[in-house]
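Allow me, if you will, to draw on your knowledge of protein folds for a short while. The matter concerns a single protein, recorded as an amino acid sequence and a row of backbone structure tokens. Could you please explain, in whatever detail you think fit, how the structure tokens follow from the sequence? I remain grateful for any guidance, and I place the record below:

…
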Amino acid sequence: MSSGILRVQSFTSRLAAPLGFVDVTVSGQNFSTTFQTDAQGNAPDIRVEAPDRSYSLNQHSAVRPYALCRLQASKPGWLGLELNDIQIFDGQTTLAQLEMLPGSSENPQVPTAPRAPLFEGSGGSGPAPESAGTPSKILRQVVIPETITVHLGRPAASARNVTVSFRHYIANVASSEVYPTWPENALRANIHAQISLALNRIYTEWYRSRGYDFDITNSTSYDQYFVYKRTIFEVMERLTGEIFNTYVQKGGSAEPYYTEYCDGKSVSCPGMKQWGTVALANSGYSPLQILRYYYGSDIAIRRTQNIAAVQQSYPGSSLRVGDSGTNVAILQRQLNRIAKDYPSFGTLAVDGVFGAAMQQTVKRFQRQFGLTADGVVGRATWYKISLIYASVKKLAELTSEGEPSGSGVSSGSWGGAVLREGSTGVPVEQVQFWLNVLAQFDARIPAVTVDGVFGAATTRAVKAFQSAYGLVSDGVVGKATWQAIYAAYQNMESDLNNNSYPGTPLRLGSEGVAVRQVQFWLRVAADNYIALEGVSVDGAFGSATRQAVLSFQDYFSLTADGVVGLQTWNKLYTVFLAVANNLLGPNEKPGDFPGTLREGSTGTAVRELQYYLYLLGTYYSGLSPVAVDGIFGSRTTAAVKAWQRINDLTVDGVVGRTTWNSIWQQARRLRVPAEPRLLGSAAWPGKTLGPGASGPAVRYLRRLLDIAAFWIASIPEAGAGEEYTPETEKSMAAFQQFAALPETGAADRASWETLEQSVSLWLNEK
């Protein structure tokens, strides 16, 4: 039976952040399914029966070539959403990216997307513009705009204007005008034409020069077809991302050519015939050859790097593992900013080196936004990252972090101007942005709008900061206040990326970075577990923090003493990772048996299983690679079978209680960061390591000791980090006792080499 896929994701407006736990109902002919998106706004793919793709390749077919379904979405505190006539094609993926808007039960209207059949109206585009009448303006250069304003009707009609991202507009037009099953060269030719037509309207200011307050209409009598809030086909999203900054140029004209086109079936025109592009592509024509066939031999495809809201243009070639330089650093910085709103992506060191961790982050990004998940940053991925980066930060925030185009370095240096009520401009935006970040974690500081205007609200926020940090509370930002705000912001950013146990228990009265980290994890956990209590992230271990720790310990069956020792610290981090990486549903505990899982299973429990297998794979070379995608496919089956063979379990690829417990019990011993790395190797550092030592050699040593602890019950974990902590000393002494070496707790050459040899043997015994 022929079928296609509907992929549902829920977001806040403009994809600025994922919106989790949205209730969704999808219905169609003879089926209806209800589900809830997960914490990252994702849902398992829905397979829908659809007519065979051959119908969509035959312009004379009388059979509708796609299935139709309907979607309803709701979430308390948000306006509901309905999408009608969602088209599902055989072998294609349709993206339902639900952009939800905040709303209350007092305002319960449900925005409904209109019907969206393809080849609606006259088919194709409006006729080429005539030169008579009011002359159009000509902009000085072709710029790919961040947004385009569309009039939903004929120019003079009383209709709504909507402003959408230019890339989304083109993907929408492509999804509304042609079938996703067509040959790729035909699709590319059509998208080139759709881009060029839209840019012609913008570049010549065709409508705005005539007094209209929009750039283009959605009437095919005048322009091209656009359906507000319709679903997008995955292939259109991908191709648009690759070529959205191209346009068709004819002869020596500067402006993008008005590429008039029509369907060639119900409507005829002097320009491109959409159905004709299919036949030409099947005959081996390239996109350029197709365009020249219809528009003449003097047609060229131009690419512009003038792209609004893009800090750095695509470097011209793909970036991948092994590459380095400024462009890689730009990507790292942008991905890190995106990860604030998409925490499952993880954060990266901004070092300009494209390593394995960055590859995995890129893959996560690509999967989230419907791109080919190959870990390579090509043109489509580059510009999609740029788009989402601009979306999550907004324009005011682009400058507020002091991130100039190119270098990606933020100094936070004071510009010399004292800021006070009445001041305006970029420096004010910077201060407002930093204060806003701090306000998320420090209840003493009120949030403030980042608008570049130093008003009364900004004055109050500055005074609150000054009071909290022991400065003169006058609401004026001089050099001292500027530097203090920036330093606090930088500390907050770095604090929240540290997972190393501080070495001593945290309890009532403790203060500092480690307390702030615990509070942040408690806050994340409370968002997922109703029984837990959230706290302010202020770095002070007060009664509220103690009560939250007690609640956490009780819920996860730890010793409930309100003290954060190593065990509680590790559990907090484990829960945080599980929540941040979208492995748990609401109130689910890590490691709880979810029921039997086998090939074909999907959902959160499968993601949790895959994540544990992923962690174990950093130590067990015999485990097959597995993606954490929530789909129990053949690769997951192979990994499960490999694990079962390693542990002398029944090798059937089915995860029952025994197999699950075996995987969980071993995985929970592995305290690895969100992006586990292979063990690698390191040479003897040339000196004995002991208390007070630090650096990469200590990090490597602690990793070796943790592996030893995995195999030898008498050896405690050393933990992560580059500091030789008391835990490291205890772990080393225990290993020395096991290996019949002098129990000094320090890593001399003999202890180092014996430990490496032992770990190598244990890992190869599998």
In short: Residues 319 and 377 are 5 Å apart (CA to CA). Confidence is low (pLDDT under 50) at residues 131-140, 394-411, 671-681. The radius of gyration is 29 Å.
